[in-house]
Amino acid sequence: MIKSRSELHSQMEHTMNANLRSLEDNGEYVDYNVKTNIIESNCKVDSIPSKFDGYILDIRPTDDKFLYAMMVKKEREGQEKFVLYLDTFFDRYWKLYNMEKSETINKFMDKFTNLLSIDSLWMPHQMLTDIEKKLENVGFSIKFKQEVFGEDDLGDDEISQLTMRLWSKGSKPSKQLFELLRNNNFPAIKTSTRLINRKDSEIKFLDEVFFDGKVTVNKGTDIEEHIQFVDEIIDDYSFKMNQIEEKRMSLEEIDGGFRINGNPFELKFSKKHNIEKLSERMINSTKPFRLWGITHDRTNDFLRISGVDTHTGDNFSLDLMPEYARLYLPEKACGNLVFRLYTNIQQYLDPGVIICDEHGSIF
Amino acid sequence: MTNMDQSFDHLDVVNGVLGLACNLESYPNHLFKAGYKIARIEPKFNVGGTVNPDILFVSDNMGLFAECKSGEYKTGANLGKYDLIQLRHLIEKGIDISDENMALDIGIFGKANLIKLNQKLLEEGIDYSQVILSSEIKKIYGRSFKDPLLESLFSDSVVVKSKPPLMLRFTEGSDFKRIAPFVFNTLMSRSLYGKTQFKVQEITAEIVGEVWDKLDKDLKKSMIKKVKRFLNICKRKHLKGYLQNNKDSWVITIGDHWKSRKKFSDDCDRLINSLNQRELFEFFKFAKNEYEDSVEGQTHGRGLQADS
Fold it and tell me: Which of A47, A102, A257, B21 could share a disulfide with A43, CB 3.0–4.6 Å?
């Protein structure tokens, strides 16, 4: 087992180099890719449950104060064992490094980020596009599925599902195809973006960044460059999170009266939606929204919902109108609800939706 | 400003006015456009008698006192004295002033009730600007706003597309129809956190939110009694499978599966719908009596009041 941060860096860089050589010589990977999953945590390491959803965790400290080895096995005997390295240096945004099979890690992360105080990132399309500005974009994926309305509810020119993936050598095909989709009103929302970092014609890394905070090294020579890139994604996410959490609403008593802090967020849909169907799907506690709620004000074209985020237990209020929604986040609620709700609406209902605070679009 | 003459909910009007300071596309934003921000809710000033406007908005060089009216007859004891409020009174309250020449406007906001109320105001010699907030927003009576921007914005009729935002969820005097949804989601939230055991006082504090600690002891007592009574109704009716208690120790049990959560929400809906008129009447009568008992003897009930 790796016992220090330097050992971990060496091992990850060794894997990257071995894969690069093998790709060049044999056209295939020799080992599983290096991957980093960024997660949002609102708990301490010692409060992570040691058993959940069929997994048993053994979290061991390393020589580094913030780095832990997380040994994972399935409860049923004879099932796979694997290891992830948990980096808690950033208080709220943890990184989980691994060199394991993607499928295994994806299944585990799905359950791990379902724990009450842990969540994945939820980067909407615009945040992925912002990351592209820093590097050369050589591909993307789109995954849109209409989860709220059935085929019978859709018009002839509406799309119920679109999945695509483009990898290119240069950035031109990627840009051209995306523009083509956008100009023809297809669901142009990226769920991952593929980026090259070249320095002096040497590829430092070719990473794919997914909306949920997973960053896979497809090719690379320099682990430090990859980690620095991941940290920049955390900085950007954290900056947006602070901006959003400043808008949380509260009522405060001050000298001779009360003060209201914060403002509601306003979602602007790209077209009119049937709000009865939308609320039925949105607040039934199931994926993708995972929200629970009670409608307590119902008039023509207006529903007011008092809800709970079943992922975090936080309260919220939501107004639904055919062309708009308003989201009210109370003082103690986690801002990730805004990221999650908005990203889910983009990916499962309305790709053209935008979300605003009083100064305009927040993404 | 406080009385119980309610032909419709005062809180609707308060939220209707507060919403004008938000920059939303789904609701008019007159006050945001004119550069106003919410400075205080229910500030109290002593101008040879206490005056207690509902809301004070301030912009860089103007202030606006908004008085929200939901009744048709009662104008309020000291409404005529709002003109006596000066900048020094704002400064005494710790309100930031950016211009020594700041002028103060007064606006009365309401719905169709303003049409009858205007007669009462005329009888009392009050001619503050009066703005209707219904399917349209427009200044319908009274003098001009000192702020030319406000005068211009409120002179044109603007169609209201939807309900105003929920800036204030409820007040201490709100009936339980207003508070019930927040009781239910506090129960759900506790169930998710695994904090299933609670005392009525704990859950009442969670429902009320951040201002709980600042409320008067008597008002706290009144709120706790309201919540206790409501929990007992819940337990007797559709939520009996979820709520148990031994005196003041309560336990909420909601299954983890989404179907259990969905059933809980359906049962909450059924509970509200099943309360027949007699029960509602008795319940609200009780709640009102509790509330009035609790504020009796106070010069002015502290905090956010039902009213006006």
Answer: A47
Residue B276 lies in a domain: yes
Q: What is the DSSP letter of B94?
A: T
- Dihedral sign from CA coordinates of B250, B256, B258, B260: negative
Range of the domain at B239: 176-295
Whole-angstrom distance, CA of residue A337 vs CA of residue B28: 26
Nearest to A287 by CA among A73, A120, A99: A120
CATH class, domain A259-361, is alpha beta
Who among B192, B210, B265 is closest to A252 (CB)?
Answer: B210
Of A251, A255, A292, the CB nearest to B210: A251
Give pTM, 2 decimals: 0.90
The secondary structure element, H or E, covering residue B206 is: helix B200-208
For residues B185 and B244, state if they share a domain: yes
Task: Read off the tokens for B189.
Answer: 């939230």
Cβ contacts from A onto B, under 8 A: 138
Considering the domain architecture, whether residues B99 and B141 belong to the same structural domain is answered as: yes
Q: Where are the domains of chain A?
A: 5-120, 125-245, 259-361
ipTM of the complex: 0.87
In whole angstroms, give the CA distance from residue B18 to residue A298: 21
pLDDT band at B73 (very low <50, low <70, confident <90, very high): confident
Asked whether the beta carbons of residue A296 and residue B193 sit closer than 8 angstroms, the reply is no
Answer yes or no: do B140 and B235 share one domain: no
pLDDT per position as a tens digit, B157-201: 999 989 999 998 877 667 777 788 999 999 999 999 999 999 999
pLDDT at residue B283 tops 60: no
Residues of B in contact with A304 (CB under 8 A): 163, 166
From chain A, pick out residues whose CB is under 8 angstroms from the CB of B22.
263-264, 358
Domain closes at, from B159, B192, B225: B159
